Amino acid sequence: MSDTSEQEQPQAKEQPRRRQARGERRIAQLLEAAARVFCTTGYTAASTNAIAREAGVSPGTLYQFFPNKEAIAIELGDRLVHDMRETYGEALAPVDPATPLEEAIGSAIDRFITFNTEHPVFFALMHGPDIPGRMAETHDQLHATLIGRIEGLLASLMPGATPADVTRTAHICLGVYKTGLELVLAHEGAERDAYVQEVKDVLIRYLTPLMGDRPGRD
């Protein structure tokens, strides 16, 4: 009896793990399908039926994991925000004051553009006119944190600026980036690359007079 129970116990533990793994794969499948639908139709026009159809499952299967499309969008948004926080943590770390402005701006923009081009649903959800549920609060928190990170980067580039100057400059930089990002995402290939370079050039030309004497300047 004891030998049999000892043999059955590992199997009993393994089954829940397998079910959990299958559930996680199904959730990932549904979230990927939802991302495609939200990018194509927008959040408001999207439906759970459309998401289920895109995922190749029945609506009943979808409802086993999510009660409605808002829950799907919130889960998707939470995961994207987590990834985004890691991205801007790397992209907007303070830099050595000796770093050329073109290098500092170019590196940060490249990381952000790469994230958004790999996850276009982030822009569709976070910057669309119909942000669902609590995602509006998440977006506001992300915006505030992002401004703080940009201020930290600018403070390392503008050591003589006042806090008010740095904050104002950070808001302008983020506004320029968001406007440029919309144009970047609307194009592909070489034309997209050209728009990315334009965004960098605009920011560099705006910031250059504010930087004072820096490496690479005449």
UniProtKB/TrEMBL annotation:
<feature type="region of interest" description="Disordered">
    <location>
        <begin position="1"/>
        <end position="23"/>
    </location>
</feature>
<feature type="domain" description="HTH tetR-type">
    <location>
        <begin position="24"/>
        <end position="84"/>
    </location>
</feature>
<dbReference type="InterPro" id="IPR009057">
    <property type="entry name" value="Homeodomain-like_sf"/>
</dbReference>
<feature type="compositionally biased region" description="Basic and acidic residues">
    <location>
        <begin position="14"/>
        <end position="23"/>
    </location>
</feature>
<dbReference type="InterPro" id="IPR041674">
    <property type="entry name" value="TetR_C_22"/>
</dbReference>
<dbReference type="Pfam" id="PF00440">
    <property type="entry name" value="TetR_N"/>
</dbReference>
<keyword id="KW-0238">DNA-binding</keyword>
<dbReference type="InterPro" id="IPR023772">
    <property type="entry name" value="DNA-bd_HTH_TetR-type_CS"/>
</dbReference>
<feature type="compositionally biased region" description="Polar residues">
    <location>
        <begin position="1"/>
        <end position="12"/>
    </location>
</feature>
<protein>
    <submittedName>
        <fullName>TetR family transcriptional regulator</fullName>
    </submittedName>
</protein>
<feature type="DNA-binding region" description="H-T-H motif">
    <location>
        <begin position="47"/>
        <end position="66"/>
    </location>
</feature>
<dbReference type="InterPro" id="IPR001647">
    <property type="entry name" value="HTH_TetR"/>
</dbReference>
<dbReference type="GO" id="GO:0000976">
    <property type="term" value="F:transcription cis-regulatory region binding"/>
</dbReference>
<dbReference type="GO" id="GO:0003700">
    <property type="term" value="F:DNA-binding transcription factor activity"/>
</dbReference>
<dbReference type="Pfam" id="PF17928">
    <property type="entry name" value="TetR_C_22"/>
</dbReference>
<dbReference type="InterPro" id="IPR050109">
    <property type="entry name" value="HTH-type_TetR-like_transc_reg"/>
</dbReference>
